Amino acid sequence: MKGAQVQTLNEVIIQQQSAFPYAKGELSRLLTHLGVAAKIVHKKVNKAGLVDILGEAGAINIQGEDQKKLDIFADKTFISSFKSSGIVAGVATEEQDEIVVFTDNLSVNGNYIICMDPLDGSSNIDVNVSIGTIFSIYRRISSPGTPVVTEDFLQEGNKQVAAGYVIYGSSTMLVYTTGLGTTGFTLDPSIGEFCLSNQFMETPKEGSIYSINEGNYIKFPQGVKDYLKYCQVEDKSTNRPYSSRYIGSLVADFHRNLIKGGIFIYPRTSSNPRGKLRLLYECNPIAFLAEQAGGLATNGYGKRILDVKPKELHQRISFFTGSANMVKKAESFMSKYDEKQ
Ligand code: P6P
Ligand 1 atom closest to Cα of 253? Predict the structure, then answer.
């Protein structure tokens, strides 16, 4: 039995909807559909060790990575949930080379499109490390009643109407924003509901955690190398040396830093000159959440992630995000060199 003080995802969505006087409830219904799909994926992720769903599925996605069965399951689950909503006209996902266009009579009139990474960090599935679903929701640009086109998906991140992630960890959480702050819900499996657990999440302006794959150190731009040395030098007045925390799963690394304070950096390297992380379905949604929680998200060269005009679906970008003062400090090292992205 749900305790009287617990607020479910649906209840909070309805309350927030009243802040959008002209909203027809479509976005609320869409977030509810997303919550149902997340619960279905949660069940499979939690049983991955038991059910024959681990291991490679054989296909190779556009990233050139082996697709694991759970990746494909998550992709299919979220796509079918969005299609059945009748509100979404199409989806761009990490697992599909091209956009998925819904042409049924209901969906073709949908006002929304979604960019998503259905199961980010999936290389960690077999070692029981937290993984996540990342999503980004836009209103379509093309006219309802016609099939969506790629241009609908190449909107700047500042046009997002909602964004968030599901983290499948020691507990499963849904963290999202509709522009009214960043809010967290924790799944209570005993009642099958996402319950409000973190209202108006605020990330500390300063932190003492830096997250980066230091295995790439020799390939980093000099500004990154200089910033890392700054993090490691002892200075009690600024709480240094910082701690290095990197799990190789964006949602898990970001979620920890969002709560504790810290900076996450995936810079461009000599082997990934555009960076590794994807703009549409990794960096833009995370950037929206970071800013709504009082943090920052840039490309390391002074460009706000949410202002970048995408040129292609699977475009990569250099990514610096987290506590505002830490991102600003890192940028001050980057700006000493004229390496512009
Ligand atoms: P690396 C996972 O594959 C991912 O897309 C993000 O979740 C994560 O932050 C990053 O790649 C890890 O990349 O090169 O450090 O293994």
Answer: 9
